[in-house]
Structures are given as C-alpha cells and as structure tokens.
Design goal:
By secondary structure, the chain is of the alpha+beta class. The protein folds into three domains: about 5-125, DnaJ domain (Helix Hairpins, Orthogonal Bundle), CATH 1.10.287; about 150-210, Sandwich (HSP40/DNAj peptide-binding domain), CATH 2.60.260.20; about 220-300, HSP40/DNAj peptide-binding domain. The chain contains nine helices and eleven strands. It has helices at about 5-10, 20-30, 40-55, 60-80, 110-115, 120-125, 155-160, 235-240, 300-310, and strands spanning about 150-155, 165-170, 170-180, 185-190, 205-210, 220, 225-230, 240-245, 250-255, 265, 285-290. The strands form four sheets. A four-stranded mixed beta sheet has the order 6-7-11-10. It has a three-stranded mixed beta sheet with strand order 1-5-4. A hairpin with a 6-residue loop joins β8 (about 240-245) and β9 (about 250-255). α2 (about 20-30) packs antiparallel against α3. The longest helix has 19 residues, at about 60-80. The protein is rod-shaped, with a radius of gyration of 37 Å.
Length: about 325
C-alpha cells in the first residue's frame, strides 16, 4: 500500500495551522472542482486527492494520528528497508472510531464520486471507511435550499410609493415588501424565504421579478418621468399657469408668454424614487402641447382675422 503525503497534496508545511490548511484546501478545491473543469479527468482525480487530504488534516484528531504514522513511516524509510514490509496493521482503524466528520465546503466525495470508495485504500485503512461500527462513514451533507423566483406585476404608483403583496407558496402565506424605485426587470431578494434546506441546511432565497405596468399619463426612463401637458392657445401666447399631474398630486407650472409647441419644462425631484437611495428622486419633464380653440363664435373668428391682418403687415 502506498503512503499518502497529505501535506504535500495541499502544499502546506507540516507545522501549518488548521487555518492555513483550510485556506490551502479552499484555494485548491476552487481550482480543481469538476464544475470548473468539466470533463477533465486529471482535475477530477486531483480534486478527490485534495478532499481526502483535507478529510485527514482538517480534523485535529485524524491529523494527530496521521502525524504519528508519518514519523514511523519516515523512520522505516531511513533504515533502507523494503517499504512493502512496513507494518500497517498497528495503524489501521480496526475498531477505532474515525474521528469527527470534516465539513467539505466544495462537495462531499460521496456525492460527487459515490460513497466511501471515493477514498484511497490508504485512507480507509488508517481512518476506516467500510461503514458500520468503527468504520469511517460519510454522513449526509447539509444543503442550502433552492432559490425561488416569483413574477410580480405592480403599477407605477406602487413602484413610486413601495407596496406589499401576499403570496401563497407551497402552502405558506407570505407577505413581501416591494421597495420604492423598482422598475421592470428588478429582482427583489427576500432572504431565507426560498425552498427549505436539506439535512439541516439553510433555506434558499426568494426573488421577486418585477414588471411595472404601463401608465396612461407618464412614460418612465430610469428615475425620470415624462408627460405631455395641454396648454390652451391664449396661455401659450400670453403666459399664465397650468396644472401638471405628478405621482404626488397636481402642481402648478408657470408658462412664459409665447411658449412654443413641444417646449419641455423640468420639475426637479418629482420623478421616481431611486431604488438604492429612496430619498433621492428623479425629475419630471412636462412637454407642452398647444390646445387650439374649437367651436369659435362669429366674433372670435373676426378677431382672429384681424390678428392675421396685423401679423401680415
């Protein structure tokens, strides 16, 4: 049976702290994980060795036994004797317990590669692994619950003020808050309200996928709002005030004399709430549309005719 140098596999010194061992393991596991290296058999084999090494060195009890074995093995080698003659029996797990289970953050070998066979003969001889009393048995790994997504439709007014929804999910009644400033495409995270975890793992998260319904008055662009404001001909020519709709109610806008069609006025801070900073507001842009008078009387038509003559001179 071949001796496994777990320190060398993790690239750490024999005097490394448990923190150093964990740090080295996490780095190597990220690099060699099968999800990162799909179809790469060498990376898969390396990942199995890294996990096995951490199973041994990440548990102080196993590490102590492994260090004692290593010292004995090195002494045997220094004598120049045949490695095949080394007495593994005194180091085998036998009826001893295999120590506490080390949590492997990047996937249990049993999950990825199938049961205790994922460990080498060396590991199973020293720490057990056949299962049953005294053997090293892989325990179920706790798993985080699945994230869930729920589409939600809201009005522009609800997006401006914030709102709530009552959801029915898997027999649960859940009231969720939708913050002010959301837009179509926004995803609102509700922590811990996704699918339940497995074997004591935490629940996943719930994501609300927002769609803001079209509005009859306002067009939204980011945090700014745009609307058209009808202005009668006389106010456009002579000046005056008109009422402008906003999501907070109507406000009065001063119209200068001789205001042309299409003129846009900026009303600062009367747009949408900012999602990241609700106290910050976008602006409202009111575009003037000239409303021509209709159903003119005979006298009004005569006055317009006189005006046309004056303008032509």
């Amino acid at each position: 049976m071949e001796y496994k140098d777990y320190y060398n596999l993790l690239g750490v010194d024999k005097n490394a702290t448990q923190r150093d061992i964990k740090k080295a393991y996490r780095k190597l596991a990220r690099e060699c994980h099968p999800d990162v290296n799909p179809g790469d058999k060498s990376a898969e084999a390396r990942f199995k060795e890294i996990n096995e090494a951490y199973e041994a060195l990440g548990d102080p009890e196993k590490r102590q036994k492994y260090d004692a074995l290593g010292t004995s093995w090195q002494q045997w080698q220094r004598t120049g004797r045949d490695p095949r003659g080394f007495d593994w029996g005194k180091w085998s797990a036998g009826g001893q317990q295999g120590g506490r289970r080390v949590h492997v953050e990047y996937g249990d070998l049993g999950d990825l590669f199938g049961g205790s066979g994922a460990f080498s003969d060396f590991f199973r001889t020293i720490f057990g692994g056949a299962g049953g009393p005294g053997g090293y048995t892989q325990r179920p790994r706790s798993r985080r619950g699945q994230d869930l997504e729920q589409p939600i439709e809201i009005t522009l007014e609800e997006a401006y003020n914030s709102t709530k929804r009552l959801l029915q999910m898997d027999g649960r009644r859940l009231e969720v808050k939708i913050p002010a400033g959301v837009d179509t495409g926004s995803r609102v995270r509700i922590s811990g309200k996704g699918a339940p975890g497995l074997d004591g793992g935490p629940a996943g998260d719930l994501y609300l996928r927002i769609s803001v319904l079209p509005h009859g008055t306002f067009e939204r662009k980011g945090d700014d709002l745009y609307c058209k404001v009808p202005v009668d001909l006389y106010t456009a020519v002579l000046g005056g005030e008109v009422a402008v709709p906003t999501l907070k109610g109507r406000v009065m806008l001063k119209i200068p004399p001789e205001t042309p069609e299409g003129k846009s006025f900026r009303l600062k801070g009367l747009g949408m709430s900012n999602l990241k900073n609700p106290k910050a507001k976008g602006d409202l842009y009111a575009e003037v549309t000239i409303a021509l008078p209709r159903h003119l009387s005979k006298q009004e038509k005569e006055l317009f005719a006189q005006l046309a003559v004056l303008r032509s001179q």
